[in-house]
């Protein structure tokens, strides 16, 4: 279940409580669903009870208790815990790895994306006239839009043409923030001009570190060796694409199933939805960049086992490993795209 689907589940719980006469409120158009904060638990949390308390004329804790059984009735929900002043912490049923892989392959690069724009307020992002801030804002906007948000970006002054031509940034308008209360993104500035690294390496160098960390803009981001995280991510993706081509030549295709000794990769893929939600809600593309490294590092040991060796015939195990590898490749390609970085088919 994606965060957008869970938001709809929360709204259905509110609607059922209203229909049963347990709440007297207007069902809102949106329920905010985020990873649990400090003191929370489960997979996601929602403040819908706090949102409805005033119109319901009841304390948030009472509203939460009313909604709890309706949420527990949802098929994908395994537990709901009320914490703090009335936050509903929701645990979801984990599908089998094969089901997860099947869903990723069905959605492809758009796995984890909302099906369309959500009914939520405009998200205004603003950046100073500094290259790293503008690149971070551009990536944050891409991630937010993937989650169904309406985003408008502004920069204090027009960006240099090469920031657009080389780094691929897009800014909606210039000058003061168009909307009061927008988020001002101020990461530690780039110490030198990143443009000589080219688009992909420069964006990675600016996005991979946490906003509070000083980016390292050196040629290390261009070298094709294991010490370069960007190389590992792009290499892992390119290898998955090569495996698909090689498997087709051998006459077999992917089929999700049980894969032995792949728990780390399955866990990393299962965490992708949560990472996208966090990166969107906290406007932190670095979370996504580091997650892609985790996926790549977990995928690389699997890849040499995908194809049959010698006279070995393709088996169900080979098809399942190919499906898992292709799922990893889809997540890596989709994540790189949200960061504005190319995912090459060959490397």
UniProtKB/TrEMBL annotation:
SMART domains: Arg_tRNA_synt_N, DALR_1. The keyword GTP-binding does not apply. It is an enzyme of class 6 (ligase). It comes from the Bacteria. Keywords: ATP-binding, Ligase, Nucleotide-binding. This is arginine--tRNA ligase. The lineage of its organism: Bacteria, Bacillati, Actinomycetota, Actinomycetes, Kitasatosporales. It catalyses: tRNA(Arg) + L-arginine + ATP = L-arginyl-tRNA(Arg) + AMP + diphosphate. It holds the Pfam family Arg_tRNA_synt_N. Residues 4-92 form the Arginyl tRNA synthetase N-terminal domain. Residues 233-347 form the DALR anticodon binding domain. Its EC number is 6.1.1.19. The keyword ATP-binding applies. Coiled coil: none annotated.
């Amino acid at each position: 279940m994606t965060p957008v689907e869970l938001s709809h589940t929360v709204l259905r719980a509110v609607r059922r409580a209203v229909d049963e006469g347990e709440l007297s409120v207007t069902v809102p158009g949106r329920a905010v669903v985020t990873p649990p904060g400090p003191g929370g638990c489960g997979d996601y949390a929602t403040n819908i009870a706090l949102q409805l308390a005033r119109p319901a004329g009841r304390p948030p804790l009472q509203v939460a208790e009313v909604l709890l059984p309706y949420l527990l009735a949802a098929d994908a929900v395994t537990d709901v815990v009320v914490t703090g002043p009335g936050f509903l912490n929701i645990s979801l049923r984990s599908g089998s790895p094969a089901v997860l892989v099947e869903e990723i392959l069905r959605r492809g690069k758009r796995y984890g994306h909302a099906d369309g724009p959500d009914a939520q307020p405009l998200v205004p992002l603003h950046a100073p006239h500094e290259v790293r801030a503008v690149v971070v804002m551009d990536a944050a906007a891409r991630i937010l839009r993937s989650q169904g948000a309406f985003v408008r970006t502004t920069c204090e002054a027009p960006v240099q043409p090469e920031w657009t031509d080389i780094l691929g940034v897009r800014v909606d308008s210039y000058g003061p923030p168009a909307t009061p209360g927008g988020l001002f993104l101020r990461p530690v500035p780039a110490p030198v001009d990143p443009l000589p690294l080219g688009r992909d390496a420069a964006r990675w160098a600016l996005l991979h570190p946490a906003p509070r960390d000083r980016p390292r803009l050196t040629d290390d981001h261009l070298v094709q060796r294991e010490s370069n995280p960007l190389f590992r991510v792009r290499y892992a993706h390119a290898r998955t694409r090569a495996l698909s081509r090689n498997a087709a030549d051998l006459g077999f295709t992917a089929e999700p199933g049980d894969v032995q000794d792949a728990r780390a990769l399955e866990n990393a893929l299962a965490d992708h939805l949560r990472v996208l939600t966090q990166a969107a809600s906290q406007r932190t593309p670095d979370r996504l960049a580091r997650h892609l490294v985790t996926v790549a590092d977990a995928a690389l040991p699997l890849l040499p086992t995908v194809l049959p060796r010698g006279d070995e015939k393709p088996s169900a195990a080979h098809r399942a490993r190919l499906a898992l590898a292709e799922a990893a490749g889809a997540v890596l390609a989709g994540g790189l795209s949200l960061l504005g970085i190319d995912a090459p088919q060959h490397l």
